[in-house]
What we know:
single chain, alpha+beta, 3 domains, four-stranded mixed β-sheet, 8 helices, 15 strands, UCP012641, Zinc-ribbon_6_bact, Zinc-ribbon domain-containing protein
Amino acid sequence: MKIFTCSNCQNTVYFHNRNCVNCxxxxxFVPQLQELCAMEPVSEPFWKPVNGSASxxxxxxxxxxxxNWTVGAxxxxxxxxACRYNRFVPNSIDNWRRIGEAQRHLFYSFLxxxxxxxxxxxxxxxxxxFDFLExxxxxxxxxKAAMTGHDEGRISIRAAEADDxxxxxxxxxxxxxxxxLLGHFRHEIGHFIWNKxxxxxxxxxxxxxxxxxDRIDYDTAIQKHYTNGTPPNWQNEYISAYASMHPWxxxxxxxxxxxxxxxxxxxxxxxxxxLKAPHHDAIAADVDFDPYTVLDFDRLAETWIPxxxxxxxxxxSMGERPxxxxxxxxRVKEKLAFVHKIITRQPVQRPFIQTPQMA
Length: 359
């Protein structure tokens, strides 16, 4: 995520800020500009960016301080480019606010790449929709946790995972190294992207050559995964244990990690980060480029790997778990490169390595 500057006083401001702490101006993220702008009122309900001319309205969710994005004056939708897909929202405003922050972070990347995001109004059977679901108490008094998942464009997120304690408990129970709201969004929308840009984009055979045959029965694959566990040496083939379950999950995990890496590199770029460890030439990196403009994924990986090693080492020095506990093996990098080519709309017809079918 980039660092923003208040367009009124040039103070540093950040993506989720509602007001500039220096000059007090109201801030709004304007999707058309991809900028967080100081806003000044025009006439109710319209605002415009300072030194700008295009009138905007704040997203309808700004009323409850859930969203700081704007909607173009001519846009018939009351909700911004992120919130307009929401069908069910949490009862808790605090949970909704945390979920909304992760959702807008996701859509920031979608705007940068102009990725497809047709809603149910355009595509009733496969368009994008978000349901933030509450846990339920059954008639016999049992607690039934809502499920996070994807079904033909419908993405459901368990609202309770906006609570740090709940999410950490689930992470520990499932023996996961990493679990975040933003990770959920990036993974689940990876399935939507597979539908729109692979299945419907005529790239099934190319994708199968990299990730394996998606026609493998999904329910059988789930049962096998949870009965037998991960295959031996899975780290050589997959970015995560969950990715080893089925080619669909492998693609979705790879999509999520592509976004993780590029977003983190953009942050590092905006902070001017560079690594040069004396006597350790392998731990060197200079993020002197905008990763959203780079088409060569190898360059991104070569910079990210030493940077992630340094970040993990800092976390260890503070007694924390590694921030990025994943290994980019040659096969994993090839999968990430394939996803990167799709989202940057590069040709993917070159010969890829056939994925071995692991027992």
